[in-house]
Design a protein that fits this description.
The chain has about 270 residues and is an alpha/beta fold. The chain has 2 domains: about 5-205, Rossmann fold (3-Layer(aba) Sandwich), CATH 3.40.50.300; about 215-265, no CATH class. It has helices at about 15-25, 80-95, 115-125, 150, 155-160, 180-205, 215-235, 240-250, 255-265; strands at about 5-10, 50-55, 60-65, 100-105, 135-140, 170. Strands 2-3-1-4-5-6 form a 6-stranded mixed β-sheet. It is globular. The site of magnesium ion (MG) has 5 residues, from helix 1.
């Protein structure tokens, strides 16, 4: 019997830790060690794991939730963009058990460059379609019904245009309030949100897939992608273009030019 490992990914402050906190709380598991913060700077600095058991039919299944470091847009965060990305890459490479599902977390509203680049680097380049992705759209507390955002065709078109591929969209909210009356309403919405995420985990998880056993595995993948692009376009200068695209993405995520160059070289992007 395998363990299901669910990776929670997204830009800083989108609600990754909140999802885990309320998932655990809903199972009466102590979640006090999980930091949730409204400050402008990132608050999760290390990838941490949390686990619980769900009963499916007669079988108990273990689910491990993995909270990750959010990639930030600027270097104002306590963890700079380059460090966060390096830590995240290291975590993926070092992970021997693999992953069953990715929950990509975004806040409701316009798709930001930050979310698009995080998705592109993380899901397209690193995960490379090997693991199913579900999108969790947070901050939907003002919507009735909760899935109004995903029912809006314009949003689906925007996701498509921005290259997002996913199995499902879960609109949710983990809003809190110090006003008891308001928080009672939010608590109801949080419970509904958790129930949807719970169901999606069970529905879409697959046996854990291991991504890369070594940095050279990653290098091979990128080279393969590069070669097929070259073949397809019959162009020699594509190498430069791919490098530039990746570098631009890293710059948007708040890396300075030097860190982006080091990271690209260090991880063997070329
Ligand atoms: N209104 C509203 N606030 C939310 C929601 N989800 C999270 N928040 C708030 O957004 C802030 C950031 O949430 P976190 O769960 O810490 O976000 P994170 O993605 O783990 O952030 P980092 O660890 O810094 O990358 C906190 O103040 C949360 O209470 C939501 O659905 N609605
Ligand atoms: Mg966090």
């Amino acid at each position: 019997m395998y363990t299901n490992r669910v990776l929670i990914v997204g830009s800083t402050g989108t609600g990754k830790s909140s999802i885990i906190k309320y998932l655990l709380e809903s199972k009466n598991i102590d979640s006090s060690s999980i930091e949730v913060s409204s400050s402008a700077i990132g608050c999760t600095f290390e990838s941490s794991t949390y686990d619980y058991i769900v009963r499916k039919g007669d079988i108990d299944e273990q689910i491990i939730l993995i909270d990750t470091i959010g990639l930030n847009e600027t270097n104002d965060g306590k963890v700079s963009g380059s460090k966060a990305l390096t830590k995240l890459c290291d975590f993926i490479y070092d992970n021997k058990e693999g992953f069953s599902l990715i929950i990509f977390v975004m806040k409701k509203g316009r798709i930001t460059n930050e979310s698009r680049n995080t998705y592109d680097i993380f899901v397209n380049m690193i995960i490379d379609g090997k693991i199913p992705v579900i999108l969790a759209i947070t901050s939907c507390e003002d919507d009735e019904p909760l899935d109004t955002w995903s029912n809006n065709r314009d949003n689906i078109i925007a996701l498509e245009k921005n290259g997002f591929k996913y199995k499902d969209i879960i609109c949710c909210s983990f809003a809190m309030s110090n006003n008891k009356r308001l928080d009672d309403i939010y608590a109801d919405i949080r419970a509904k949100s958790i129930s949807c995420i719970d169901d999606a985990i069970i529905k879409y998880k697959i046996p854990p897939q291991h991504l890369y056993t070594s940095h050279s595995g990653m290098l091979l993948l990128i080279k393969k992608a590069w070669n097929s692009c070259c073949r397809f376009l019959g162009a020699d200068n594509i190498k430069f273009n791919i490098n530039e695209k990746l570098k631009n993405m890293l710059l948007t995520l708040g890396l300075d030019e030097k860190s982006a160059d080091i990271l690209i070289t260090e991880y063997g992007f070329f």
